[in-house]
């Protein structure tokens, strides 16, 4: 008997109404029957141009928006977003955004940012919350000296580490990563991708990785789903789709994307770290 996927969607449709008082109203179908399935510990990358429906789908998966039609299942349980989602279910799915600064309260110290999900969702004492927040801060590569600093005092890469740490505080099963490295320098991208892969292995996390950067997708994905104008045009294992994309849109998309060798960037970073360690 096969394990129940962490995430499934069946025929997800999302409509929006548009138009004004004088132009009449019309329905725009942003998602046109999306089926997907992601097993525990695996990464599904969703790719496509801006406006293809990636972010709309992410909002449904994270239970922010309800679908117009179709079914969302988390660990085999159907989720009715309109009827209300229990806290325990919301904790299972967390999201990391492209711009972490926009999702961090500038008036909160980082220790409070990390402790807040525990305060809202657990009976832990203040001391226990502080201890767990400090442990997670260290786990994502930051230090005790960062605990009482404010978001504006960090670089973009450090803020993304904080956002990842916050998403993990309530022990989720699924992380939706919405363009998590696209705003970062290439060397920092490689560091964050390494961190995400290490965390996935350590906590057996399931990822939905939304990106337009195929060079990144090639390094992180197990399966790739290509979207065009609200539809899935190709959905196959990573190696198969990169070796021989079948749909004309996929071929055009792949041909138009410059290739960045993240493996070489990682190798340079490792060599630099080794030189620093030898010098010390």
Taking all Cα atoms into account, the compactness measure Rg is 20 Å
Low-confidence stretches: none
Taken as a percent bin, the fraction of beta residues is 15-25%
Give the tally of β-strands. 10
Number of helices: 11
* H-E order: EEEHEEHEHHHHEHEHEEHHH
Largest sheet: 6 strands, mixed
Share of helix among residues? Answer: 40-55%
Averaging pLDDT over every residue, what do you get? 90
CATH fold field value: Rossmann fold
Strand order of the largest sheet: 6-7-8-3-9-10
CATH structural class: Alpha Beta
- Overall geometry: globular
Number of domains: 1
CATH architecture: 3-Layer(aba) Sandwich
Query: Going by CATH, what is the homologous superfamily?
Result: P-loop containing nucleotide triphosphate hydrolases
Task: Note the gap between the termini.
Answer: 53 Å
What features would you describe in this structure?
The protein is α/β, with parallel strands linked by helices. The chain has a single domain (40-67, 83-279), classed as Rossmann fold (3-Layer(aba) Sandwich). Helices cover 40% and strands 24% of the residues. It has helices at residues 54-61, 87-90, 100-103, 110-121, 126-139, 156-168, 186-203, 214-220, 238-243, 248-255, 262-279, and strands at residues 7-18, 26-38, 43-47, 69-74, 77-79, 93-96, 174-178, 206-211, 223-228, 231-237. Strands 6-7-8-3-9-10 form a 6-stranded mixed β-sheet, sandwiched between helices. The chain has a 4-stranded antiparallel β-sheet with strand order 2-1-4-5, with helices on one face. α7 links the parallel β7 (174-178) and β8. The protein is globular, with a radius of gyration of 20 Å. The protein starts with 6 loop residues before the first strand and ends with a helix. The mean pLDDT is 90.
């Amino acid at each position: 008997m096969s394990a129940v996927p962490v995430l499934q969607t069946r025929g997800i449709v999302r409509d929006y109404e548009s138009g004004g008082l004088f132009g009449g109203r019309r329905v725009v179908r942003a998602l046109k029957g999306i089926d997907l399935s992601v097993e525990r510990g695996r990464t599904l990358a969703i790719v496509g141009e801006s406006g293809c429906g990636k972010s709309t789908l992410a909002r449904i998966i994270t239970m922010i928006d309800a679908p117009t039609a179709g079914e969302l299942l988390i660990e085999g349980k159907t989720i009715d977003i309109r009827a209300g989602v229990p806290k325990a279910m919301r904790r299972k799915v967390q999201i990391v955004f492209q711009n972490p600064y926009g999702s961090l309260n500038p008036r909160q110290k980082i220790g409070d940012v990390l402790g807040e999900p525990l305060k809202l969702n657990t009976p832990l004492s203040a001391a226990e919350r502080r201890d767990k927040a400090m442990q997670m801060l260290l786990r994502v590569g930051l230090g005790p000296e960062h605990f009482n600093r404010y978001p504006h005092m960090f670089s973009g890469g450090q803020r993304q580490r904080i956002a990842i740490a916050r998403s993990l505080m309530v022990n989720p099963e699924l992380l939706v990563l919405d363009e998590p490295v696209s705003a970062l320098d290439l060397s920092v991208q490689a560091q964050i991708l390494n961190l995400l892969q290490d965390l996935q292995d350590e906590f057996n996390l399931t990822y939905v990785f939304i990106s337009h950067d195929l060079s990144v997708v090639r390094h992180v994905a197990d399966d790739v789903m290509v979207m065009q104008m609200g539809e899935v045009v190709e959905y196959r294992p990573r190696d198969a789709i990169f070796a021989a994309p079948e749909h004309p849109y996929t071929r055009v998309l792949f041909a138009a994307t410059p290739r960045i060798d993240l493996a070489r960037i990682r190798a340079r970073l490792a060599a630099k770290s080794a030189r620093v360690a030898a010098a010390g």
